[in-house]
Amino acid sequence: MLTVKDLNVHYGGIHALKGIDLNVEQGQIVSLIGANGAGKSTSLNAIMNLIKYTGSVSYKGKDVKSTKTMDLVKAGLTLAPEGRRIFPNLTVTENLTLGAYARKGPEVAKDMDWVFELFPRMEERRTQKGGTLSGGEQQMLAIGRALMSRPELMMLDEPSLGLAPLVVKDIFKIIRTIHDSGVTVLLIEQNAKAALEVADHAYVLEVGKVVLEGPGRDLLKDPRVQSAYLGE
Ligand code: ATP
Questions:
Q1: Which protein residues touch ligand 1 with a CB less than 6 Å away?
Q2: What CATH number should be reported for the domain holding residue 189?
Q3: Residue with CA closest to ligand 1 atom 4
Q4: Distance 121 CA to ligand 1 centre (A)
Q5: What's the predicted TM-score (pTM) here?
Q6: Could you read off the pLDDT of 169-191 as tens digits, one per residue?
Q7: ipTM, 2 decimals?
Q8: Which strand ranges, in their side-by-side order, compose the sheet holding 77-80?
Q9: Which partner for 31 in 39, 158, 202, 212 could form a disulfide, CB atoms 3.0-4.6 Å apart?
């Protein structure tokens, strides 16, 4: 569904991605783990055409290098950014409505009902300003907003960042539910354990390169992953 080949990104003199290959099959959950600065967010931003890159990205069999971000969203590819990137001065409902900017009509209301079903907390707080939500709630809103574009492939940027363990558990439960409803997922995470447990396939990124890949279950048992990312 998504194939990334030889992805390179430079920020001025910094070579942030040094030839990354990734593959996401329809129906999978794929995780990308790595330490701070490994290039995880850069990878997703490049795929969404938010930054310049060399190499190739194809989505549903089509090269999308010259496809505008908005048109990628219309084609079912969405990025749920890290939670604090919601609109702080807009209400929960307004934030969600913006997620459906490419669409109109009764379908949008139906999708909002689905988001409220997934996140009852968002329904309770529908008139509250995004900026006044807790960290976990803002993360739920960011995921909810991305869902409002009806993604076929949803990319999530560190959905568990800064959240309490119980909330992290909830977020991963929701990711599974979203996946079970038919959405393919590409997840980037610093929480390696949770990300590998949920992943059909996973990649380990170190300073701009993929250094390991395999089924999530296998990587959980890999001694290199255990000592570097699982604190074992
Ligand atoms: P984190 O988990 O800390 O968010 P990450 O794996 O997502 O890390 P990136 O944000 O992709 O890492 O950053 C990769 C590298 O590129 C880092 O060294 C970072 O400092 C650098 N970088 C990222 N964005 C920019 C930018 N706009 N200008 C210059 N350098 C950047």
A1: 11, 14, 16, 34, 36-42, 190
A2: 3.40.50.300
A3: 36
A4: 32
A5: 0.92
A6: 989 999 999 999 999 999 999 89
A7: 0.92
A8: 77-80, 153-157, 184-189, 29-34, 201-206, 209-214
A9: 202
